Amino acid sequence: MPVRNSKKKIFGHCDCCDSKTAKITGSVFLEDKGETLYLARWTVGQRKHGIAFLILVPSQNVFISIVYSFEENSFMVVGPNDQDWQPMNAPMRILNREEVIGTRLAEWAFSFIDEIWTNDRHLIKFYHKMTIK
Ligand SMILES: [Zn+2]
């Protein structure tokens, strides 16, 4: 399986809509790119906050931050100040947008996002729930 050990936790709540927040962590493997870790977070029952991802770049020990918007139906690379990922177990640097966009890292990260998007069962379940007409 390309996506392994996906675990989901419900924690805290969103101040603006009082909904609970879900976070998943897992690892993802691509034949030509190796394995990395990811985190994803969303607000239970809410589309408006989208889905926030962190993808680890193992060779540099940094994260790439990517956000999915339901409204736009698209993914966007964001910077360290665009999403609040604190507290994290291991404080690690999140790359700035300029360090990712237009580089091979962006392409690299989106390959993993594709794999997570199509294989993480927690994510699939949430997406499905939010997009049922
Ligand atoms: Zn909210």
Word description of this protein:
Helix content is 23%, strand content 39%. By secondary structure, it is an alpha+beta fold. It has one domain (3-131). It has a six-stranded antiparallel sheet with strand order 1-2-3-4-5-6. The longest helix has 16 residues, at 104-119. The chain is globular. It starts with a strand and ends with a helix. The model has no long low-confidence stretch (mean pLDDT 92). Bound molecules: zinc ion.
Protein topology:
Blueprint (H helix, E strand, L loop, with lengths): L2 E11 L6 E11 L3 E10 L7 E7 L4 E8 L4 E5 L18 H4 L3 H16 L1 H11 L2
Antiparallel strand pairs: 1-2, 2-3, 3-4, 4-5, 5-6
The protein binds zinc ion.
Zinc ion binds next to loops.
Identify the notable features of this structure and list them briefly.
133 residues; binds zinc ion; 6-stranded antiparallel β-sheet; alpha+beta
Number of strands: 6
Order of helices and strands: EEEEEEHHH
Averaged pLDDT:
92
Identify the overall geometry.
globular
Give the % helix: 10-25%
Strand content of the residues, in percent? 35-45%
Task: Report the uncertain regions.
Answer: none
Span of the ends, CA to CA: 30 Å
Q: What structural class do the secondary elements suggest?
A: alpha+beta
